[in-house]
């Protein structure tokens, strides 16, 4: 007679833990569901059972809050974000090109925060338990130097720990979930102290050193975006865990595939697309790894229009936290300076490329809106040229007023003694005219800022090929507008 107890005890090492409340009503179980707290795992529901509200109520009465399920059941049992109000519109936007519109004229103005409150049926927006209520909105002030030094040291230390975690997982399959939880947990205090300083520290280090760095930076950006979107701290923690560890499976691949910035062959792309499965295989063996975090690691490369991998899922099939992770990871990927790349993408260019992708239906538009609220359209830490010929470094976002961030500015002939912090949302006489590069030395047109070429576009994809748009656009000359017609049109079309 087989030893059932031993079998179940062994099974707990690969079953994924999942909240009872997140199970999808009406789903049929293809494998058993076990109690998450008992040892050995206690059978709760047999394979072939259909989940009903009455079954869930009975389990709740028994004090069951979490269950263990087989990894392959996660997609079957997960409650996916309701898209009743927007599904038809999103499908139309993903399947057709947007029509060209007349030149849009954007002027800095006070906007309404789309995430101040949560609408019925939506995952986004603040509710009483949202973490955003613990995060103060910063004024137009410089960073605290003591806090800045502390966060910078913590960032460097966390990267060293992250590298060690990834290597040890790859070599010996060690369960590092506790260390990961501690690593992620420290970010919440820094966000509460100064979310803009936190982002500046975590996002401006652009050299690619390994998947651990990209995972860590993606997780920190995702937490900040999730905070703006109104998630609670538990959701943010699960989001960060999945984001941080999503590339652990790449440690099983040829490093050249991961570090390359040049287009991969079809065969190499197929090989690279295997790593979400490798990551899932590793993480589901950790008994205290949240099921949603495992799913995020598996779905982070999926796209709302079905063009992602590994399974080509579409928006209704993608977990709502995975949609945040996808945008955060893409931004960090665009910013990373890999060893065979000639030059990194400017932060503004990364935002611009993401806007083109959301226009094509790749990303959830509200999540991309949250990215703009979090870092602004000229991201925190980047250099810009202002309309009065001054140079500025973006210090803080202005959330819903993402066109007009808070900048530290100076005159180019005396950068030390002329520094001034400007909140562009309060100024009608100064605006950003272009993004500029820091390396090796910022360059500026001799004729002055208002007689200029286009905002940096060299790294963008061929928009005619991707979207069928007209390629010739007259540059905006209105005194308060800094975006070219095409990008202005995209923001208008997306109702941003």
Automatic annotation (TrEMBL):
Concerning CDD domains, the annotation shows: HDc (cd00077)
Write down the Pfam families for this protein, in alphabetical order.
HD_5
Q: Which Gene3D superfamilies match?
A: Hypothetical protein af1432 (1.10.3210.10)
Instruction: Give a GO molecular function annotation for the protein.
Output: cyclic-guanylate-specific phosphodiesterase activity
PROSITE patterns from the UniProt entry = HD_GYP
Q: Where is this region: Disordered?
A: 86-122
Q: What class of enzyme is it?
A: hydrolase
- The secretion signal range is none
Q: Where is the composition biased (Basic and acidic residues)?
A: 86-110
- What positions does the domain HD-GYP occupy? 189-387
- The protein's Enzyme Commission number: 3.1.4.52
- Keywords linked to the UniProt accession: Hydrolase
Q: Which PANTHER family match?
A: CYCLIC DI-GMP PHOSPHODIESTERASE PA4108, CYCLIC DI-GMP PHOSPHODIESTERASE PA4108-RELATED
Protein name according to UniProt: Cyclic di-GMP phosphodiesterase response regulator RpfG
